[in-house]
Amino acid sequence: MGAKSKLYQVIINYLEKQIADGAYDNNVKLPTEAELSKLFNVSRITAQRALDELEMRGFIYRKQGSGSYLNENNKLKADGLYMSGIHENNIALILPYDILGGRFNEIIQNAAGVLEKRGYHLSLHNSKTNIMSERELIQKLIASGISGIILYPQRDRANMDLLYNIWLEKFPVVVIDKKITDIPVCSVYSDNFTGSYLLTKELVKNGHTRIACFYYLDFTDVFSIRQRFFGYCAALRENGIPVDYRYVINFYDKLFESENKTRESILKELLDSDVTAVITQNDYAAFDLINICNQINIDIPDRLSIVGFDNVPQSEYSNPPLTTAEQNFASIGKSAAEAVIAQIEKKPCLPEQIIPVSIIYRQSIKKIN
């Protein structure tokens, strides 16, 4: 065990002893990361890791902007052993990325709000885009006695064996952003198909017929991206435009086909083929494309119209401001929380909830003849 791991465990042991000795009443605030790092002369990352571990075990819960608190009815024995049922009324939210990044906070805040009103607490966990880490988290949380899980999986075809057995055991779980094919586990996700369909239709309405589709993930493994691709195809077909697979580009895969291929050269080839518009996987992919266009002096939208997906805050301030589809992350968080509570309380739960999206019209599309 390394020095950093020892220090992290020292903090856990200290807090466990404090809790066991009754130093903190229920719902009393624990020392902050800054206070713990100063007390033990360690980095805030080490202190955070200790608090993360106690949160995962169910001894504490966290309020964003407020701090860490002792859970009600979660007591430690004096010898440091854990009592059964320590996660009663705790719901785990497993996210694949940095839990403080993007618009995930809208999911977190709205899920937590619904849960707290019903007497439940939300704990946050990050699988770090690692399928095995996601699997281990699910297993550890269930073994710890957690009441339910809201899962944002990295891929919809990963850990299907585990999810199927969880469903057979009727353990409360809700999947967000994805639909797990062949397993009737409860799912809450945005209407990605319609969002992409409407964006493509808007490009066609503005005179574009050669529309490329850029993505950065294998859409055979990611339900949301797959649905966006299907919406793109449907809008083209409806308007009598065949899907030209020369215009369907996975930027990352293409980079490895030839050492001479770059994203800049791929884009130039598309422009030479008279492509006038691109629909991207999400807003961040659109920003990446805009940066490439700026590097090779491609004017947006005069030479190339670009649309994104998600409506992240930066999309309003990109140059030009980005036309995009807005996901209702707040509604996803609320619906997921309500669905997991329904399962815990043995009440009817919709097996699938599709949250509508809306199109945000800005200046990244040019009307052409």
Description of the structure:
The protein contains twelve helices and 14 strands. It is an alpha/beta fold and 369 residues long. The protein has two domains: 3-189, 3-Layer(aba) Sandwich (Rossmann fold), CATH 3.40.50.2300; 192-326, Response regulator (Rossmann fold, 3-Layer(aba) Sandwich). The strands form four sheets. A six-stranded parallel sheet has the order 4-3-5-6-7-13, sandwiched between helices. A four-stranded parallel sheet has the order 9-8-10-11, sandwiched between helices. Helix 1 (3-20) packs across helix 3, helix 2 crosses helix 3 (44-57) and helix 4 (104-117) packs parallel to helix 12 (329-344). The longest helix has 18 residues, at 3-20. It is elongated, with a radius of gyration of 24 Å. The relative contact order is 0.11. Residues 1-5 and 75-86 have low confidence and may be disordered.
Short key terms for the protein model shown above:
2 domains, alpha/beta, elongated, Rossmann fold, 369 residues, disordered N terminus, 12 helices, 6-stranded parallel beta sheet, 4-stranded parallel beta sheet
Major beta sheet, specifics? 6 strands, parallel
Structural class: alpha/beta
N to C succession of SSEs: HHHEEEHEHEHEEHEHEHHEHEEHEE
Number of strands: 14
Give me the CATH architecture of the largest domain, please: 3-Layer(aba) Sandwich
Please give the radius of gyration in angstroms.
24 Å
* CA(first)-CA(last) distance: 67 Å
Pick out the low-confidence regions.
1-5, 75-86
CATH class of the largest domain: Alpha Beta
